[in-house]
Amino acid sequence: LKEYCVMKFGGSCLRGIDGIRDIVSIASSNEKCVLVVSAISGITDAILTFITGRLSERKIEDFVSSLREKHNELIEKLSPPGVHSRYTQEVNRITRKFGRLLYGVYYTGELTPRTHALLLSFGERLSARVIAAALEGAGCRSIVFDSDSLAIVTDGGYENANADLELTRKRARRKLREAVDQGLCPVVTGFFGVNREGHVTLLGRNGTDYSSAVICYAIGSRDLVIWKDVDGFMSADPTLVPEARLISELSYDEASELSYFGANVLHPKAVEPAKAGGIVIRIKNISTPGSEGTSITGSRRRTQGVVKSVSCLKDLAIIRTYVASGGYQSGTISRISGHMGRAGVNIISATTSQTCIAFLIREADLKKATASLRALIRGELDKMETEKDVALLCAVGEGLGTTRGIAAKVFTAISERGVNVGMMSAGASSAAYHFTVSMKDLETAARAVHLVFFGGEG
Ligand code: ASP
Ligand code: MG
Question: Is 206 near ligand 1, meaning CB less than 6 Å away?
Fold first, then answer.
């Protein structure tokens, strides 16, 4: 019996007619397949910019009709008249509701987190209709599931919610399986779910990878393909290291470390449901569907050089907080990080010493972070210092934490090129460690480390 499979198509695949035709040709040649889709490229950003800008009746009318026309035009081009009227009617219904919500925001002058989340979910509601229409146009019967009615059940957060895997499985499994078993190809909206109170919650920007892993878990499939416009995970960022090569296999931990520390291939949260369900995630390039891509599995296979990839994050900053009365007490870290957390600052990494706690954050968050800590100065903190133009390099590989000599090789290579290492952190994960260099040294450092583990030739 053929197993169920889940395929995710992100915004980068949802670009114009040709991109959608590629999706249809892949989906229609796979049996028992569920599709999870993002909004059409640029739509989520457009909605976000629109709703946070200045509204007027005129602008609302224009924006809503531009969305309606854009999606309806695609539907009309991708499906015959009999099919397309059904889907254009749905687009009209959805955009009408979207418009009414916008009027609500405009008249009340109030955009609550709940409404914000609901409005941002419309990109996926619309793209799912386009894909379903295109599938039907190619003779593949389809059904759309909006992930609030399906239901992908989440915790209460509106912007960055997490799915309740068990509850989602209970609610969604039967509906999805019944549809597939009847020979339909379900198209599920990515990016959002619904909390227990019945309100739409977002899973975080670029969250459709995560949605697709949750759906895969819910239907009980072990086969998730994430289609992208790149080949998969690389041994380094190819814009910094031209010799970077494709990695064919990663463990769950390796994939999540790389995703967290800069590889822009997979949403870090997608690994959790995959781990829980023993799901193999394959990353594949939509323009070369025959090529192998990267597989992410439960196997912790080591490679000869141990390090599988070197990822990086740019435009970071360090805040060093000096603790008053020499030596920090229990609770200090949580109080300091709590202040920053409430100000919306995400702490990427932290290291501590007797007198100082250093936090690595995004440079864009630096103002917020220092403002939030100012209140602690001359109380808990003596002073703080900040450093800009920081980049992070992260070496990832199963067994890295327990193999002798890796750090020595990395730091020798870097120091030979005259690059200074700032903060570093090892031991939190046995599959990764990371360190900072200044932005101007990033390329030199990345190439040096890559050369040690992968040699010069691609
Ligand atoms: N459309 C959403 C975003 O742009 C979700 C996604 O693309 O995965 O963030
Ligand atoms: Mg997107």
Answer: yes
Phi and psi at 345, nearest 5°, equal: -95, 130
Lookup result for tokens 């010799």: 243
d(CA 429, CA 45): 34
| H or E element at residue 24 | helix 16-28
Only one residue has tokens 């990371």, namely: 434
Identify whether the C-beta of residue 152 lies closer than 8 Å to the C-beta of residue 124.
Answer: no
The interaxial angle of helices 366-374 and 332-342, nearest 10 deg, is 120
46-61 core/surface letters (b: 16 or more CB in 10 A; e: else): bbeebbeeebeeeebe
Ligand 1 within 6 A of CB of 266: no
How many helices, marked H, and strands, marked E, lie in the chain?
15, 17
What is the sign, positive or negative, of the torsion defined by CA atoms of 73, 78, 84, 86?
negative
357: nearest Cα among 321, 386, 382: 321
The atom number, within ligand 1, closest to the CA of 45 reads 4
pLDDT digits (tens, 9 = 90+) for 375-428: 888 788 888 999 999 999 999 999 888 888 888 999 999 999 999 999 888 888
The position carrying tokens 């100000």 is: 343
pLDDT digits (tens, 9 = 90+) for 223-239: 999 999 999 999 999 99
Residues 318 and 21: their CA atoms lie apart, in Å, by 46
Question: What are the φ/ψ torsions at residue 357 (nearest 5 degrees)?
Answer: -120, 125
Centre of ligand 1 from the C-alpha of residue 348, in Å: 22
Residues 5, 215: contact at Cβ < 8 Å?
A: no
**295 CB less than 6 Å from ligand 1?**
no
Cα–Cα dist 272/262, whole Å: 18
DSSP state of 231: -
Q: Which two tokens stand for residue 276?
A: 């829980």
- Statement: the pTM of the whole predicted model exceeds 0.90: yes
Is the CB of residue 293 below 6 angstroms from any atom belonging to ligand 1?
no
